[in-house]
């Protein structure tokens, strides 16, 4: 869907030249909840609703790829009740996604090691991914039990195993071949990475893929992140000149 150009305050977004792939670190749920004197689970619930809205809007404006950081390999260190609340929210969201799939027509996939998840939740993730595979216009990726270093180690082990089995030779390794061992194989690297909440770091997110990504930071916590904040990030991206190491 082409929106042409749209003003955001005094700025203009060109919807005919969107970044192909936007990645978002959905940060600030806990701080948002603390400021309102409510449990952290309330912040995660509000953040889940923001994700619904942003994913739907991404499809509306014609974005091809959206990747979100939902749960990292380090997040297991959080209190069990908080982890359980996050997993319940994910379960509920995936059930909604299955119910509304024909209407939304969004392909959903998961990046990360799903084996530690509850078997029922893991089966639901697999069902959503396989059922939505036919929709190719908008692709939403959820990074779940994901870590950038873990992904690179997983890829390195897989390549080493193929070498041991005689399927590959070490001297054959190129960046393109290594890409094929990553969770994100077949998906273009992110053009733009957005992090709300005021923090300005990657936090182990898409370390390999972020080599030439543009960054956009905002103090707005994720539950308060609206369509206009996404448009502001896209506009900031459109004002930049990407050189990829050239002049």
Compact summary:
This protein is 40% helix and 17% strand.
Describe the structure.
The structure is a single chain. The protein is of the alpha/beta class and about 250 residues long. The chain is about 40% helix and about 15% strand. The protein is globular and about 55 Å long. The protein starts with a strand and ends in a 9-residue tail after the last helix.
List keywords for this structure.
alpha/beta, two-stranded antiparallel ribbon, single chain, six-stranded parallel β-sheet, 247 residues
- List low-confidence stretches: none
Number of DSSP strands?
Answer: 8
What would the average pLDDT be, to the nearest integer? 94
| Order of secondary-structure elements | EEEHHEHHEHEHHEEH
Shape: globular
Percent strand: 15-25%
Radius of gyration: 19 Å
Task: State the strand order across the main sheet.
Answer: 5-6-4-3-7-8
Q: Give a short account of the largest sheet.
A: 6 strands, parallel
First CA to last CA: what distance? 33 Å
Quickly count the helices: 8
